[in-house]
Design goal:
With about 350 residues, this protein is mainly β. It has 2 domains: about 35 residues; about 300 residues, YVTN repeat-like/Quinoprotein amine dehydrogenase (Methylamine Dehydrogenase, Chain H, 7 Propeller). Helix content is about 10%, strand content about 45%. The strands form 7 sheets. A 4-stranded antiparallel beta sheet has the order 1-28-27-26, with no helix packed on it. A 4-stranded antiparallel beta sheet has the order 2-3-4-5, with no helix packed on it. A hairpin with a 4-residue loop joins strand 7 and strand 8. The longest helix is centred in the first third of the chain and has 20 residues.
Length: about 350
C-alpha cells in the first residue's frame, strides 16, 4: 500500500485547559476590581466612554492648540497651533475653509479684527502677521519684537494692535503701516533681561491697555503709554487678562490657579475664583458680561457668575476619556465665547478644538 493511500491520523484536539485558566483569571481580576471600587461609578465610566460626546470636535491640527477666536459674525472659528498653522473653519460643522501658513514656527496667539475682515497672529518667529480673514492672503508683517509674541489685541476701532512679547515689551502699532506708537518695556531683572509680558487686552472704549506678566497687572494710556494704575496682584505669573464688556472690571488668570476680578475704578479686588487646581491659562467674558469662562492646565473649562464668582458649570471634554479621545487632563490653552453667547470654543494640548453649548 502506498503511503499516499494510508489514512491520516486525526489532528489532536487542542487542550481547552489553557483557555479556561485565562478566562478564570480574568473573571477573578474583574470581581476583585468591582469588589474594591464603587460598581455604580465603574458602570458610569463605561457608559460615559461609550456615549457620544455632546460637543463638536475639530481634529485637523497635529500639535497643541494655543488659541481660538470666533469671527464677529459667529460663522467661523480660527485656531492657532504649535504645528505652525492658523486654520479657519466653519463654526457649525467644522468643515475646513483654509490654512494660513505664513509663520515659520509655533503660532501662539491670534485675534479677529472688530470688523471681521482681518486676522492678526503672532508666534515664536517673533512676528505679528495680518492677513485677509476671507481668503488667507497675507497683508502685512510686523517685525518690532525680538522674541516670541505671546498675545495680540486689536483696538476697538481696528486701527491699532497691541502685542505682548517674551522680549519684555508691549508695543502698540498701526495695522496698515506698522508705525509704532508706544513701547512699554518692563524693568530688567538682575540677570539683565526684562521679564516677558504674557497677556494684553484693550479696554472697550479704546483708551487703555491692560497687560500682565510676572507680578502686577498694569493699565496704561493707549495713546501715550503713561501708566494709569496697577492692580495688586503680586505673586506668580499672569497668563491672561480680560476686560468686562462694560469696561468696569478686569479678570486675571494666573499660575496660582486663581482668577481674580478687579474693579477698574476703585482698584479693589471683588473676589477670587478658586475652582481650578492648576494654572489658569485663558479667561473670557460672555458677551452679556454675566459670566466668565476660564481655561486651565487642569484640563477643564469652568463657567461661573461674573458678579459673585458662584460656580455654574465645569466642561471636561478635554480632560475625560471617551470614544475617540484618549488624552486625559490635557491643558486647555484657549477659550472664546460665540458672539451670541450660546456656545464656547476651547483649544487644548490634546490637539483639538471643541465647540460646546454654554450652560
Amino acid at each position: 500500500m502506498s503511503i499516499l493511500d494510508k489514512k491520516l491520523s486525526p489532528a489532536p484536539r487542542r487542550s481547552r485547559r489553557r483557555s479556561i485558566i485565562i478566562v478564570g483569571v480574568l473573571l477573578i481580576v474583574i470581581l476583585v476590581f468591582f469588589a474594591l471600587t464603587d460598581i455604580r461609578s465603574d458602570i458610569g465610566v463605561v457608559v460615559h466612554f461609550l456615549t457620544p460626546p455632546n460637543h463638536f470636535t475639530y481634529h485637523r491640527h497635529s500639535q497643541y492648540v494655543s488659541a481660538v477666536a470666533w469671527s464677529p459674525d459667529g460663522k467661523r472659528i480660527a485656531s492657532a497651533s504649535g504645528d505652525g498653522t492658523v486654520q479657519v473653519w466653519n463654526a457649525v460643522d467644522g468643515s475646513h475653509v483654509y490654512t494660513y501658513l505664513g509663520h515659520s514656527g509655533d503660532v501662539l496667539t491670534l485675534a479677529w479684527s472688530p470688523n471681521g475682515k482681518y486676522i492678526a497672529s503672532g508666534g515664536v518667529d517673533t512676528t505679528v502677521q495680518i492677513w485677509n480673514a476671507a481668503t488667507g492672503a497675507h497683508i502685512f508683517t510686523y517685525h518690532g519684537h525680538s522674541d516670541a509674541v505671546f498675545s495680540v489685541a486689536w483696538s476697538p476701532d481696528g486701527s491699532r494692535i497691541a502685542s505682548a512679547s517674551n522680549d519684555g515689551t508691549v508695543q502698540v502699532w498701526n495695522v496698515t503701516t506698522g508705525h509704532t506708537f508706544v513701547t512699554y518695556k518692563s524693568a530688567s531683572t538682575a540677570k539683565g533681561t526684562p521679564p516677558p509680558w504674557n497677556a494684553v487686552a484693550w479696554s472697550p472704549d479704546g483708551k487703555r491697555v491692560a497687560i500682565g506678566g510676572n507680578g502686577n497687572v498694569l493699565v496704561w494710556d493707549a495713546t501715550t503709554g503713561a501708566n494709569v494704575t496697577s492692580y495688586g496682584y503680586d505673586s506668580g505669573i499672569v497668563h491672561a487678562v480680560a476686560w468686562s464688556p462694560d469696561g468696569q472690571y478686569i479678570a486675571v488668570g494666573s499660575s496660582d490657579s486663581l482668577v481674580q476680578v478687579w474693579n477698574v475704578a476703585t482698584q479693589k479686588s471683588i473676589y477670587n475664583y478658586h475652582g481650578h487646581s492648576a494654572d489658569v491659562l485663558a479667561v473670557a467674558w460672555s458677551p452679556d458680561g454675566k459670566r466668565i469662562a476660564s481655561a486651565s492646565s487642569d484640563g477643564t473649562v469652568q463657567i461661573w457668575d461674573a458678579t459673585t464668582g458662584a460656580h455654574a458649570y465645569v466642561y471636561r471634554g478635554h480632560a475625560d476619556f471617551y470614544f475617540g479621545h484618549f488624552t486625559s487632563n490635557a491643558a486647555v490653552n484657549g477659550v472664546a465665547w460665540s458672539p451670541d453667547g450660546k456656545r464656547v470654543a476651547s483649544g487644548s494640548n490634546d490637539t483639538t478644538v471643541q465647540v460646546w453649548q454654554a450652560m
